[in-house]
Every structure is written in C-alpha cells, then in structure tokens.
Amino acid sequence: MSDNSFIPVYQRLYNYYEQAILSLKYKPGDQLDSINKIMLTHKVSRDTAKQVLSMLAEKGLIVKRVGKGSFVTHGSTTQNVWGVVLPFLSSNMEELIVHLRGEAIKRGYEINCCFHFNNLEKEMSTVGEMIREGYDAVVVVPNFDETKTTEFYNRLISGNTQVVLADYTMSRSKLQYAIQSYELGVKRAGDYLLEKTDKNLLMIRNQNWSGPNLLHELMEACFISFTSESKSQREVHVLDEARELSVEFISKNNIGGILCAADVDAIKVYGRVVSWGICIPQEISLVCYGKTELLDLFKPLITSIDCCYPKMAQSIATIIDEKKEKNSQKQFIFQPRLVVGET
Fold this sequence. Notes:
By secondary structure, the protein is of the alpha/beta class. It folds into three domains: 9-72, Orthogonal Bundle (Arc Repressor Mutant, subunit A), CATH 1.10.10.10; 79-180 and 309-335, Rossmann fold (3-Layer(aba) Sandwich); 182-306, Rossmann fold, CATH 3.40.50. 42% of the residues lie in helices and 20% in strands. It has helices at 9-22, 35-42, 46-58, 91-106, 120-132, 146-155, 182-196, 214-229, 247-253, 263-275, 293-297, 309-321, and strands spanning 62-65, 69-72, 79-86, 110-115, 135-140, 162-166, 177-180, 200-204, 236-239, 255-260, 285-289, 303-306, 331-334, 337-339. The strands form three sheets. It has a six-stranded parallel beta sheet with strand order 4-3-5-6-7-13, with helices on both faces. Helix 8 links the parallel strand 8 (200-204) and strand 9. The longest helix has 16 residues, at 91-106. The model has no long low-confidence stretch (mean pLDDT 87).
C-alpha cells in the first residue's frame, strides 16, 4: 500500500485492493483477505477493514458470503465488444484502430479504445477491468518496457476473453500476437538511404514518453547495425525528436539521409529542411516509418515503410475468431515494405 498522508487510510487501502483485483493479482473467484488479515497486514482498525470491504462490494469488485468470506466477482457474460488498449494516439495507432474497427463491424462487434500513456499499472488495470466486464477480446499495444509487459501477459488468466498483443517487438514470447518485423522494415529503409546518398545517415526517434522505449531502441540498434554491415564507412547519428534538428547539425555531420520513426516528425523535418534552402531528395533523402493517411494527404508524398496494418487487423480478428479452439496459439509476423515517394 503506497504511503500518501493526504489520502485517508481507508481510501489508500481501497485503492490498493482495487488495483490488485483489476490487474488480476486476485483473479475472479479468489478469496480476498479477511477483516482480521487486513487488520494484521495493513495495521488498521476493524472499522477501517470493514469499510474497505464494503466499498469493494459496492463497486461490484467482490461479493460477501456469510460465514465464508469475500470473493472476487467473476466477469459478466460476454459482451460484443473488443477492447483496444494503446500507449497513446498517433497516426500509426489510428491506422490500426481504423482497420480493427472494420474487422469488428463485419462480425457485429463494437470497439472501445483506452490509452495507458506508457503506464504499466494503467495498462494492467485497464486490461483486467475489460476482462472482468466480459469483453469478447482485448487487443493491446503494450507498454514500452516489454520485459515487464511480457511477464504480466504470460501469467494472465483471461477466462472467456481473448487477449491479443499487437505491434510490439518480443516475437520470441509464447503469447498470441500479430506484429511486424521492425528489423526488416528498418533494414529496407536503411538500404534505400544508403543507395540514395554517400553521406552520413540520421535517425530521428519520437521520444515523447518517459521510461525506456524498447521499440525505438530496437530500431536504432538495427539502423546502426545494418549501416555498419554495409561496409559503407558512413556514420549514423540519432536524435530524440525533430526539434533537435538544425541546419548546423546537418552541415557539421554531413547528413544525406534521414529516417523518422514517426510520420509527424517526417513532415516536420521536410518543412524545416526545405525552409533552410536544402533540397529534398536532391541533397537529403527522407524516409518515414509508417505509411498512414496523414502521409497520403501530405504533398509531396514521403517515402515510407508500410506497416501492414490492414493485414495485422485481419490476423488479430482471425485469432479472436479461433479463440474457442483448444490449444490455439496463433502468431503472425508481417514484412513491412518500402513505398517509394518523392523524398
């Protein structure tokens, strides 16, 4: 239980048990701590322990059984809803949502999207609540620290709710997922840039969230590795965001090719570079990771890596459709392709 003197003891204790239930530390059907155990474990009075259990019961998180104790409630009957849990809203995530919604509608389901803002506790509690509410399926683009994410999903008991991970990097896990090969996507972007310029290369991450971002770390490592393997003797530089780019940086580091991890940064880069009197693609080639509607509407058309979101959504739907099969363990990995534009 966290120590926060500004929150009443009973509320802090309620928050603790609510979080434990929603994150499935206590699973449906599990017996919750008794009044005596709550008093002993958390050093609170009997009245406080009784108040906490009453609050949990009022919220519908537990049911009290006379003479037996308090038990975590089971999720409601299956709802015709697919939950989609995302770290943030971006053009790439919006593409995935659009195609998932299309697959859901075909099957008579609704979509409910929630964002965890790269917060693991928020992600776990949201997934747990959707399972308890009886969602037919929950599709998750996980927290950036996937080492913790994988541990959570490996021990998750989801009952009748199908949980599918999407667009993350840990392809060696035993979980059900539909993902893309970021290594291949980055390699195709790097090969293209190496072909177009004999100058040094730059990768611009989209580092807007706190904590480790294993996805961008993977992309960065691949970009540097593939360039080194090409024996081109060219340097690779990395910036966290587009705002760090300057005409002085480009000149000093002899930059001739740029890979942006996000479409919005590619558009920012294009605008800045052109405003500095640098010609694209004659002097600098530009590639964006993620072919989205935003890029389709922007002119000139920016060369991009297509993340295969329509196929990803179709495969997620296939996993959900086959959830009743015993020992079904579907895993899909897609090969992103380079779409050459005018940059």
